Amino acid sequence: MTPDEFRTHGKALIDWIADYYEQIEQYPVLSQVAPGAVRAALPGAPPEQGEPFAALMADVERIILPGITHWQSPNFFAYFPANTSFPSILGELLSAGLGVQGMLWQTSPAVTELETHVLDWLVEMLGLPERFLSSGAGGGVIQDTASSAVLAAMLAARERTADRGPQTTDSRQPTKDGALAAVGGRRSQTSGPSAVGNDPRLRAYTSTQAHSSVAKAAGIAGVGRDNLRAVGVDEKFAMRPDELRRLIEADRAAGLRPFFVVASVGTTSSTAIDPLPEIGAICREFGLWLHVDAALAGTAALCPEFRHIHDGLELADSYAFNPHKWMFTNFDCNCFWVADRAALINALSILPDYLRNAATEAGAVIDYRDWHVQLGRRFRALKLWFVIRSFGVEGLRARVREHVRLAQLFAGWVAADPRFELAAPAPLNLVCFRLRQGGDAANRALLERLNASGKLYLTHTVLDGRYTLRLSIGGTLTEERHVRAAWEEMTNDE
Amino acid sequence: MTPDEFRTHGKALIDWIADYYEQIEQYPVLSQVAPGAVRAALPGAPPEQGEPFAALMADVERIILPGITHWQSPNFFAYFPANTSFPSILGELLSAGLGVQGMLWQTSPAVTELETHVLDWLVEMLGLPERFLSSGAGGGVIQDTASSAVLAAMLAARERTADRGPQTTDSRQPTKDGALAAVGGRRSQTSGPSAVGNDPRLRAYTSTQAHSSVAKAAGIAGVGRDNLRAVGVDEKFAMRPDELRRLIEADRAAGLRPFFVVASVGTTSSTAIDPLPEIGAICREFGLWLHVDAALAGTAALCPEFRHIHDGLELADSYAFNPHKWMFTNFDCNCFWVADRAALINALSILPDYLRNAATEAGAVIDYRDWHVQLGRRFRALKLWFVIRSFGVEGLRARVREHVRLAQLFAGWVAADPRFELAAPAPLNLVCFRLRQGGDAANRALLERLNASGKLYLTHTVLDGRYTLRLSIGGTLTEERHVRAAWEEMTNDE
């Protein structure tokens, strides 16, 4: 494809995308294809000769589009949103166009410095504690997802715990023979778990309502999913600090090593908000790393009136939220901060010869490869910068407020209708509700009817053992008329 | 931004990108900015009000562009390439435009099915073993990077090892109190390390020349970097199978549990190719999982004449290569296959209630969230599909052949010049070389002079303890004239 052909096809694709958004309400929100249907329409063998771009786009319309569940539809109320916006799409386009890889500061200084800068901006925008600013001992980085952020936090916590106290070594063998002098270019700098392996006495804690990524991270890190304790919750589905304390004290009494707590600001099932002041105080008392996962809800803190969700966050060691959920920035974009970047870097840094360079050796720069699992990294700060500058902070706030207003409006309708009940508090933009009559079967039938209609898409959870519908409002294009239509569709025939 | 404004700005951005590629040789390849210069040009506070798109693009030109190291320049010879192409940029644009998130089959069936399909195509295109096809027990998935692929392989290997034999449990405590009934929705299905934590006797193996990501993965997984054995290499920098066997046997004799070997097809320092037939036979004999990392070199197998690099791959349990390095697909895009997907899924699957759905429960579909660290995922198959269809397999082969031809041409010039010497064999598109006189200081000075000129960018490694220059040829736009100019610049003044 020549530059001139790129100009032609690229402009046609820009129009295609604009058309898509203008027509998006025409499509069934949840894809209606059967398993295997997309593959069945694709040729069995790759083409030997190149094909014209028009042939690709024809197949996009014929084969791909029916297999799309339209996350950007204003009638998408499932899971949590993964909203995007035109400025974000253009930021992603520019990132792809520049085609740079920012593993080291040197491999494109703007990738690193814009990222640090925008993450510092966000500390101000969300009113986060100053200890997360890069000017001190902390700092922020873009991870792909909240799953990677909680894993990174757990690894940093594990490393810091090892630095603070003796390791159990009775079950380990000396490793002198064939020890790792050359792999990775130098020996690891610590004697912590990243170097010598896990202490099997490590124990982590999160609530029964926490996201599955916490257990997944415990599995990946070799801590073990079963060594992640499930802390009970209160009637609002928020973690009970007394229960957390009881579990930690029992584990300590048994000779185990509590090291890590994940608190949720906005759980996935019901946006429950764990009490950070009490949890943070317990973590300080026992020397545990506190990670706060605010993947969806964090964005609400753009608005001063919702900033209370972060009360107590000054006691946290790390924090993450997803602009790719509710801040109009396309997936993937998780923002992750640590108060002490040294622990994170100790856990993840390896510097082979082929990555050595003057800027890194001088210590004058950040090399973000040491802040996450991956070595290479895309220029993701660009889309975030485009979004913040295009909307302005006031513009972002206005849209977040409107989403919360719509959710509260919907919650009011549910509460006022004798056929329905609210299943949990709705502090922000998610409403959990169910039919009072007919039990799980009736609620499941309602969900299936709604999704099969193609007019909207919502998903369920289980709260107090009962099947519960979730209406999650965060689409960039969602307006009151869409929420009103959803309610009408639900109450139709009921 | 309205759809009409998006049309206007988007088309201007398409032109900007086309212009960028037409002018790319004007920029210094390695960014010349000093640390902090990009940040210093950015305002300290985010804007309260939205700004026009023109203001953003003006800052891209004024602030961002000087901080870019131009990976797509035809004079970029550093590290390994991260090449891209116009069809790939358009694939990324379409993916951003659709804005879907493919964590489950249901959340956009086309995301999953196109990915499975294209990964099956690639098995054919590269002549990979049929056991990696999705029609059997195996299958492929797109990971972000080779670092994540080797981590996933290590986790699957760890899980399979646990399933095969008894765990050491003497240092573990029972976990009944607060055991994980609710976090993640259900208890883990295995009693392997993902559930109960690592066996501290686990030992892994890779060559002294392997990529740093292997040690990083051992650290992350809690195996411990020091429990990754560094296997010695031969005069071609390829792993010595006799040395591998000796280390495994010594570890077994010491009561340890060898479980995982990473072989490299094309090491980062010198594209050394480990002998897979011998290594694979040892892995089979001792029941170790063999992962093959062909991040850069794998692409060469598009050409039958280079397919010998994969001899013995039928003995591997997993394999990865990066289309984002040498196959014209923009970063990030790593293709990862396993012969037995059950081990991988066992290590990573968690199904909370809020992700349950009929398609998943029926077992009729793939949910790729169980194949990697992250839960959410972008529609990355789109750009790969666009690249394969736009170039055609013949078109891809032609460009790969040309890159190899250029590297061999350059290697010939080095070999024929008495001032220089080749530092390692150059089997594909990377040439390692150095000045014969003046030692490391002279070679470092040469590298610094070349990079400071802005005319080209190359990086170094250390081989046999000596500072070595690397010329890596894989840019989409790199032609013979660029390689010739690089050689002239090197031999100028020498």
UniProtKB/TrEMBL annotation, chains A, B:
- According to the UniProt record, where is the region Disordered? 159-201
Give the family, as the similarity comment puts it: Belongs to the group II decarboxylase family.
Q: Which positions does the record annotate as the modified residue N6-(pyridoxal phosphate)lysine?
A: 325
Keywords linked to the UniProt accession:
Decarboxylase, Lyase, Pyridoxal phosphate
Instruction: Tell me which SUPFAM superfamilies the record gives.
Output: PLP-dependent transferases
Cofactor names from the entry are: pyridoxal 5'-phosphate
GO: which molecular function terms?
aromatic-L-amino-acid decarboxylase activity; pyridoxal phosphate binding
One of this protein's Pfam families, by short name? Pyridoxal_deC
Coiled-coil ranges per UniProt: none
An example GO biological process term is:
amino acid metabolic process
InterPro entries found in the cross-reference section: Aromatic_deC, PyrdxlP-dep_de-COase, PyrdxlP-dep_Trfase, PyrdxlP-dep_Trfase_major, PyrdxlP-dep_Trfase_small
GO cellular component terms, semicolon-separated: cytoplasm
Q: What is this protein called?
A: Aromatic amino acid decarboxylase
